[in-house]
């Protein structure tokens, strides 16, 4: 129970850090989408799309290596491991920056946007600064110092907001002004991250580690391959829409086609905490260690469902209202994209990644992403030929995501030698989903008759939903106290 409580607290800090990062990103997006016209905003989003697409290729899967190797070595050896991975990340950052600078015009032509080339050139220094910051969460979660991650996220995202948005709002800057500000903020993140990476082991003398560069690449290269296919998967719908439907449709799609941020925060935060835990247990490889792993996995899955599903249902029912509230009336079309994409969050609850990474499932992980990417590209191309609709592209993307998720769960069930259906708490899922939909739709229909603005509609609906679902959680014995009690006890102490 003590370890589970500690994991809950560590996860809370990671979620808090991710939430602060998301909040600042959303604020900047809300402001920029209102200040820029759709064409300029689409260009800005395309720059970020190019960066996120190439990032996975150039990071070589290295950020995940911290959480895998550090639990397996002493703190004296940890300095050497951190050094090795940092050196590679710095070299890859330089290579990625060079690729963006010299390949900017080629990328602009590929995405059919003549204004994109110069913006990418201004942006090209960012990878040099940001790649060495990656993996910080893996280090701090290994040594139970994720509270530092929360502080880092808040401080650095404040700088991003200031340097990106203020030049645009106060100095009437353009897209390139925002990108220059982003570059300056990235340099600040670089300095702070390098300091924090060594903070947990700063009091220990450096000792040569048994972990070699070869060991690092042996672990990370399959992950890099899977990540390359993963980025193809995540960017394929963006590519098809950007190329075949233009900047304005891409702007609608970019705002609406996103998973619920709170869900991503919870999933990524639990994954960050679980990888070091699973890595340590997998190294022991005993019956008892496997029991600890499956019990931990099930506990996390149950808590995740309880936290995520009520939020997902709310966002699904109010998708159009949320988009207009965030981005303005001109982005009402984004609501339908958002509603379709939200369906993914009903299936993204299982943090299978850390378990596969810890028990040697990298090859299977790679194969699922490779075949999944090839199938997705074919089906999305086919949807353009048959339907010629950006919405059809997104529907195909959601269906393929669900298929990949069940392939991963199949591996987990085989590893623990249990049936796939026994992995999922179907009774709990039904206890949450059906009542949530039954509660929400009457609330929305009833309040819309009062002609409320979007803020009031979301606020009042949210409060009523929280009260009614809270009562239901007591009646149905959903036991939310088990999630929050460790945090309450920590605050009391």
From TrEMBL:
GO cellular component terms given for this protein: plasma membrane
Origin superkingdom: Bacteria
InterPro entries linked: Poly_Biosynth_Transport, Polysacc_synth
Membrane topology: Multi-pass membrane protein
Keywords: Cell membrane, Membrane, Transmembrane, Transmembrane helix
Subcellular location: Cell membrane
TM region positions: 12-36, 48-66, 87-110, 122-140, 147-171, 177-196, 216-240, 260-278, 307-328, 334-352, 364-386, 392-411, 423-443, 455-475
Name of the protein described by the UniProt record: Polysaccharide biosynthesis protein
Phylogenetic lineage: Bacteria, Pseudomonadati, Bacteroidota, Flavobacteriia, Flavobacteriales
